[in-house]
Amino acid sequence: MRQKIILDCDPGHDDAIALLLAARHPALELLAVTTVAGNQSVEKTSLNALKICSLAHIEQVPISKGMNQPLIRRARHAADIHGDSGLDGPALPTPYLSLTSQHAVDVLIDLLLQSDGDIILIPTGPLTNIATAMRRAPAIIPKIKAISLMGGAISVGNVTASAEFNIWADPEAAALVFACGRPITMVPLEVTHQALATEAIMQRLQAMHQAVPDFVIDLMRYFGESYRQVFGFAAPPLHDPCAVAAVIDPDIIVSKDMHVDIETRGEWTEGRTVCDLYGKTGLPPNVQVGYALHVERFWDLLLETLALYA
Questions:
Q1: What is the pTM (predicted TM-score) of this model?
Q2: Which stretches make up the Inosine/uridine-preferring nucleoside hydrolase domain (predicted)?
Q3: For a tag site, which of 39, 241, 273, 285 has the least CB within 10 Å?
């Protein structure tokens, strides 16, 4: 039986690849795509989701626009990495698909309340939609089978010295979700920085001679140049597909149970995921925190799925 999932995302170059993986892998049943402000405004991330699904002919999955602002803060985006559109680089045609008329938060609430508690949420952007849904309808919380999220870091950040972007963009939302009591797998920078789209990976994609893998190459060329300029990386990391891969193959990520708190007030540490690696707080673990990736397994899983797009 395929695992039911909802992808809550802010496309985004790596979100685009996470969406392609979630929509086509045979172990998953993608019930909905919900968009949120993050890498760019929700208007832009929603349009990008439509473009990706139109390009790949992902036609049976509803796409719903969500929150455009964090719970209490001003919106903060990542144009330095993803460009003004949020998906700069590839030339994409006007999408033929349309958004649903239902708000993403209502989609999350309705699907979870109607479920048998068998849906895994995969957030790959700020956690605003999910936190808002939990606030509005607390009855959804016990209906969530698990959450596999891309976000956070055990050590250093990528948007400040302390914080990873997705958590920093809406730390209050992250604090609410991390405290919800449901099983959470956190896929942090320590994992995703091991998923580098090297030139060898690009060559494997080129050898497929298909439109979707060619689109992924275009994504990675732009993303790679951003990461070279901003971070000095030799190849771009595929953050968000790691959170999807962790649902498909839970052993693909090596992890440890920890207590994780979200810093919402620190002068220098706002948005930090405070990971109690050694149990110093005495608080019970609330998150399964990844720290290593089976790299070859990850790339085989992803590339075999992309090859299914004829």
A1: 0.98
A2: 5-300
A3: 285
